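Action item from last week, closing it out:
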Amino acid sequence: MALYRTKPETVEATQFTGNTNDPFDGGAPKWVWAALGSGKLRFTPHGVEIAYAGMVENVSPTDWIVLHNDGIIRACEDKVFRSYYTRSRLANGTRDKWHADPRVSV
């Protein structure tokens, strides 16, 4: 058996609230609106669906929608997201980003 450690990466993420008036905590970033427009993301009666690689992933209220560096959008449960990522800011301090914690092993 081998041991593996995650690669540190910085991602953009937003939390889905499930609220019809304000579906994303703090508002949706531009990439979310672009993904909704392109069909990669779509609202459903139960939340949001993410379409990628011929599959569909469901996003439930409190889940995070994560944009990875390779352009893939994935869902992540809140508990997993908060254990894996820490909040940081860009150099100009204007926008939050999330960093993978290199101490977390998967």
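Closing note: The helical segments are 30-38, 78-84.
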